[in-house]
Amino acid sequence: MKESYAKELTRNDLGITGSHQAGICVPRKDKGLIEFFPHLSTKEFNPDVWIQCVDAKGKNWKMRYVYYNGKIHGVNTRNEYRITYMTKFFRVWGAAEGCSVVFTATDDPNKFFIQIEKPRNLIDNQYKGEVKDKASKVVLTAWRKVH
């Protein structure tokens, strides 16, 4: 069985808070997670790689894995890994706050299987969450290794 990681999606991840941050954050301090995705050189300014993601229907999605490292290059304060170009995928698969995006490794280090896991309350259409205003607090959720 191939290694998988899941990230519970927040309103910020889904782009519905009005923030200017794009994509989901990949924590720098989680070495296992950083090693799961393709290597990005810290010597290069904002290194990136396009990863190929394949969904359950066999559709290919190109997503950008990037290390915004302006802080270590003295350009700005950013020092974070992100996966961007996910909005259309989220829309097509009906991702909502509380769902998780799951990446599963393949034999190709730049290719992943991708899926959306929906919690029971979203599957059963019982979700009664309120839409909060754009000024609501940003909540960060952790990634988890899927066994």
TrEMBL record:
<dbReference type="InterPro" id="IPR023372">
    <property type="entry name" value="Rest_endonuc_II_EcoRII_N"/>
</dbReference>
<protein>
    <submittedName>
        <fullName>EcoRII N-terminal effector-binding domain-containing protein</fullName>
    </submittedName>
</protein>
<dbReference type="Pfam" id="PF09217">
    <property type="entry name" value="EcoRII-N"/>
</dbReference>
<feature type="domain" description="Restriction endonuclease type II EcoRII N-terminal">
    <location>
        <begin position="5"/>
        <end position="88"/>
    </location>
</feature>
<dbReference type="InterPro" id="IPR015300">
    <property type="entry name" value="DNA-bd_pseudobarrel_sf"/>
</dbReference>
